[in-house]
Model the fold of this input.
Amino acid sequence: MSEAVRQVEGLYQAYGPALLVYLRRLAGRRELAEDLLQETFVQALRGVDRLDEVVSPRAWLFTIARNVGISALRRRRPVAALAEDVPAAEVAGADPRLERMAQAIDKLPDKLRETLELRLRHELSYEEIAAVLSIPVGTVRSRLHHAVRQLRDELAKDEDAHAT
Amino acid sequence: MQRDVLERLAMDRAMGALSADVEQLLDAYQRLAPEAAATADEIERTVRLARAALAEKQPSSMPAFPVAGFQQIERWRRRVRQFTYAGGLAACLTIGLGLGRITVPVASAPVPGPSAVEIVQTSDTHESDFANATEPKPTQFARSDSNDNDAGFWSVERLLQKREQEQERLPTPNQSSPSIQVQWPRYYRPT
Done:
């Protein structure tokens, strides 16, 4: 096995599961997500020479996965797939508070939701999120701040509705 | 502290992205301002709940890494890289040769070296020549290769022409140099 393939296999073992979760959320269907995962690592193999210059391999792979996913979605446009295949309740579990929170997260604008997910689900640092989304770190903080504020407002509204 | 700044700091702390120094300062401020502590607690609860809602189990089964397919891609990649390198080299060479052909004039490109010159006496030396001679005669050059008609920079014809021109410019020994009269000013004139 060549050195490049061995390197990419190492990345696959380390970050493959997280990328599959990310791509599943992005693409909606598991089969499509698996195809996109494979495409992501093919792209990674093509650019493996640059891996030494990369600060965070995780951020680099998420960037590739995001680009691959967005390109695939532009081609196929499965708009309703996310709501069908990965419902909020399934993600949140049986706890009603978590279910409400999952619904509130689903209501967030795409940019805010994506930033929040990269931080809380995949635990990327602010710098890594900035690299993946090609935005400044200040914008990452600002998006997270807005996202948390909207979630608080949404939950407060919900609690008021339940109280009355 | 402004509410907006407090919310941002509380959010950074809840996200785990606040430095230890700033965290201590925030804690100290919250001890002094209980309403700030309530806001920070609310933000922390929201973030904790969002984290729990977003927590997703890792996929139970991962597709196996397709080693064979990736090795084939790698072989192709290496071959393409070799071809690209060779192609680039060939292109550079072609461009270099082409530019050289365009920019360097064809006539001046091959510079012939100086051809062999043989020194020969062109006329017989008479005794009278020795008697009259005050200075040695300049050596006369004649080309041994009369077929070579090059008129380039290094040609023998050009060298001979140049030498003749220099000799014409030099004054002959019997030519007297013109006298120069110096007009002295009156007060320097010797009495």
Chain A touches chain B through 45 residues (CB under 8 Å).
